[in-house]
Amino acid sequence: MIEHKSPEDIERMRVTGQFVGQVLAELAGLAAVGVDLLDLEHHARRRIKERGAESCYWDYAPSFGRGPFRNVVCLSVNDAVLHGLPHSYKLRDGDLLTMDMAVMVDGWAADSAYSVIVGTPTEEDLRLIEATEVALEAAIRAAQPGNRLGDISAAIGAVAAEYGYPVNLEFGGHGIGRTMHEDLHIPNDGRPGRGWKLRPGLTIAIEPWFAAGTNKIVFDPDGWTIRSADGSRSAHSEHTVAITEDGPLVLTRRPQHDKQREGRRVAPATGR
Question: pLDDT tens for residues 210-220?
Answer without folding.
Answer: 999 999 999 99
